[in-house]
Amino acid sequence: MIYYFTAVLTAILFFIDRKKTVKGLKIGLKKIRKNSPVFLNMIILVAFSLYFISDDLILRFLGDGSGAVGVALAGGLGSLAFMPGFVAFPLAGILLEKGVSYTVIAAFTTTLMMVGIVTYPIEKDFFGLKITVIRNIISLIMAIIVSIVIGLFYGELFI
Q: Is pLDDT of 159 > 60?
């Protein structure tokens, strides 16, 4: 549905101002060409990781019985890695199929996209040390809250 909406909107904009629309499409295609290798490498790395790490190992550390340790491990792994949503959510689906709990997946995906240990040096240069540390701590706290709420919602955690 969103593709149709985008195509219709692009066509309308093309009739309104051809030069700007063509210029925008060229800029967009350049960015896609520039960023595609990075995303492709990320997808390949995830695929290799899932291939070489056994399901038993994943379930032992992140499965239903892993509890707080599994949530902490998933949060730590997510904080160390960095992935955009279009890679993180399919990965979460794969983990769910392997038997990983919703609570653990919530901790993993939220820290994966919100906490930035890998991006820390760049973020520190742009925002400063204090803001970077505060943002990452708040993001980690929010990720824990989200995973707890998800766990309560799906009946994996009990008050």
A: no
